[in-house]
Amino acid sequence: MSASLLPVQPVDPGAASTRHVLVVDDSRAQRHMVSMQLRRWGYRVTECESGDAGLAICADEPVDIIISDWMMPGLTGLEFCRKFRDLGRESYGYFVLLTSKSETTEIADGLEAGADDFLTKPVASSELRARLRAGERMLAMQAELLTKNRVIASTLIELQKLYDSLDRDLIEARKLQQTLIRDRVRDFGWARASLILRNSGRVGGDLVGSFRVDDDRVAVYSIDVSGHGVASAMMTARLAGFLTGSSPDQNLAYDKSPTGAQVLLPPDAVAERFNRLMLEEIQAEQYFTMVFAIVDRALGTVSLSQAGHPHPYILRGDGGVQTLGQGGLPIGLIPGAGYDSYHADIAPGDRLLLVSDGFTECPLPSGQDFGEEGMLLSLRRSAHLSGADLLEALVWDLSQQSGSDSFPDDVSGIVLDLL
Fold it and tell me: 3-143 architecture in CATH?
């Protein structure tokens, strides 16, 4: 090749002198001519005379740009390119094929093998420089992408560590929350309370419980705090402290009489107390729904207040199902909200059931919710069951209807069997 085809150019101070260029050609004159020009432009150059030798160099060194002849003895430039792409390097290598071929199908073969660009022999200096600049741009973009990917990978590792730590904390929080309803079955002698609580996440915002008032009265309640995350779980823990049967002094359901004795408030007054507590003292960006009920065996009655919670049910001893309440406002939304008390007769053999909206608002494949109608149908099917068996049957029925035993909301309930 004539030296006039590659005139000597002045050194370009803007060139990336750290770039490593491999020139592969079985023609020593062609290699030297291209390499001389590359060195003048500030590149670090390695030469070799065959595709096999070039492949060995690429396997050992991070070559940035490869300029290879197409037609060579042994491994052709096309085969060399294909094997180079199979090396699986982290950094990209810009591959230029030197060729006298101009057929469209042959160029397509080169692209298919992994070539980035082509130079026609004899090589013109200006065209070589333009191809190198294009390669520089691609390598710069690829290096920037690798850097960003490393940052993303590092960030994901840190996030995973944080998630694992948070998950461990949530697992412990779940254990603590479960202690709020440690006694899944409580025997009051003439009545027995059975509880179920299934959180949709690690922790949830549902709370169910009961406490003994005196020999003839038992209070039961079901609470659903808005949301079902950490904040909701913390709120349920706080509310549980206000409904403890072991410390009537701290129980919001009690008030002191003029003589200093602890007196149980009617259910509507309990709901109003909680509403004031939420709005005037706690002042959290949360609210909750609740049913608070008092069963009196001496009077044979149940008195309850419903505050935005699903309707309570009485399952009669003869298999009938009665729905109680008229809805009411959630607690913690409206200052001065009023609540009503509802009364119904109840007798041995009957069961009082309170459930959260994790049952009634559970979505079904049809696009509808399980709803009050679904609850009534399920209760009629399970009317012969009592206690924990009844609650488990309801959950099983819900999973069958929804097509999954993983529910989108917390599912909780309490049933009080009158013995």
Answer: 3-Layer(aba) Sandwich (3.40)
